[in-house]
């Protein structure tokens, strides 16, 4: 480990570290534009210049210079100061004076560093260069005259997203960053380039000219668009969420978020349910809360009561609904809306046991019935990291573009019974083998996939390579709370009274009893319900969520719900009074204590302290995988379907519809 001095401070850094990282270890701030911790080193901007001895008598780029023993680094000498001022002067030669109208204003690296390291005047009197705008799709807005060619976006697209559709054309002063043939960028991670851009060249198109960062209230919460549990920050003004940005969590999402997480928030204020409704004469009629509760109380259910949890609900809502159903004499609960049915006797058999971060360490990976790019994009980026370290990937299912090379074995589930020799050879020599089972294989191939635990030696000391990918934020929490009927959702079809908790993907035609929908959007559930009770979205309540690896996380309320909508747990608490079976809690804190007593693993945030012992079961599989559960990445839930941005993404990026720009 090299030892060196930075401004007289001695530091020791890992082998292979750069001088810039050594300076940061010493507590020195080094300005940079092109350097980013998660991307390869480009050395484009030269803003990170420092003076190094021994070495040539000139400033050197610290981002590309390896740290070595006995180096002396100086970050504040007159040479360094003059060099940084000169670099900043060059960068600003062609940069337009757009700060008053630039969406990056207030969050701009160029603004901050020009104040801290730039000269107080300009010597440039020539005309500035202008660059035509580029089209990058419905997510990213471009003002390429501002671009300083740091190439962060290019490196992100190639190295992290795996969709090489952004690059540079021309050379020298004429260099321009553009998408391939100026077409829309098709990556589901494209919105991250907005955060990466250190200037205002790439900004968020849906958020354009909406607000300044200092006007916004910032709330830390958890994303519910998939089961990864991305840590996010919701920025709101008044009663509306204006944008969503990721937070850093190395164990979950690093610092990335996919486009659905970022831009579905404009659906939070559209198609909202803001008052109770009761179906009368075939039509939903607005009523008071008391009238809606009395309509439910009038149902002769005879203890035949059930609850179906949707994909976006929190644990508190599911627990409150379960408590009410139990109080009414019912005992049927289900969270797998689409009819999926698999063994839940051991939660380890349906958990992502390797953990999301652990995926990077795998050296042999078998994907079974999963389009990981759409089902869990931020797990897919981890698989790409594993491949860069030498991992070999095999896949069973219909061929699809995963952003990396995989050896496709076919779409026959019977392959699980007798894997090809090439797979056995690769896994036989693997120290950290890994199997990832998706929704397309769970129903018919879960048992056979579990048999691979022993056949491929997936469990080793400190390593469990068996993993299941869920697509719903509520799934693992629901399974921990018992939302898994023995016969799947078909077991609930004959219930005389069924509560649907934001469940919009259910085949409602199969339910013959009285249907009560508790949700926040006027989607499929509200259209089929006999009583509609307006609940709140994930942005409007504090809640507990468990991600696909069994990590317990809590989100906070960012805004208040519209109209007469109420928090879901409080709806069930108020309803219990009218139904004559009062629930034993009057506050969220009281509900949580009841929930923690029932499921202690939900009490502490982090990986759940649960019995993750793998079951010793197996089985055979047959049939073919006709397709993957997600047909349209951008329209997977009620919030997305209400979002104009997601509708545009679906039309353009999935279905190939052309959109003319205003100039055309």
UniProtKB/TrEMBL annotation:
Name of the protein: NADH-quinone oxidoreductase
SUPFAM superfamilies associated with the record: 2Fe-2S ferredoxin-like, 4Fe-4S ferredoxins, Formate dehydrogenase/DMSO reductase, domains 1-3
PANTHER family reported in the protein's UniProt record: NADH-UBIQUINONE OXIDOREDUCTASE 75 KDA SUBUNIT, MITOCHONDRIAL, RESPIRATORY NITRATE REDUCTASE
Residue stretches making up the 4Fe-4S Mo/W bis-MGD-type domain: 216-272
GO CC annotation, single: membrane
Function: NDH-1 shuttles electrons from NADH, via FMN and iron-sulfur (Fe-S) centers, to quinones in the respiratory chain. Couples the redox reaction to proton translocation (for every two electrons transferred, four hydrogen ions are translocated across the cytoplasmic membrane), and thus conserves the redox energy in a proton gradient.
Keywords in alphabetical order: 2Fe-2S, 4Fe-4S, Iron, Iron-sulfur, Metal-binding, NAD, Quinone, Translocase
Similarity remark: Belongs to the complex I 75 kDa subunit family.
E.C. numbers: 7.1.1.-
A biological process from GO: ATP synthesis coupled electron transport
Cofactor note as given: Binds 1 [2Fe-2S] cluster per subunit.
Source organism (scientific name): Sphingomonas gellani
Enzyme class: translocase
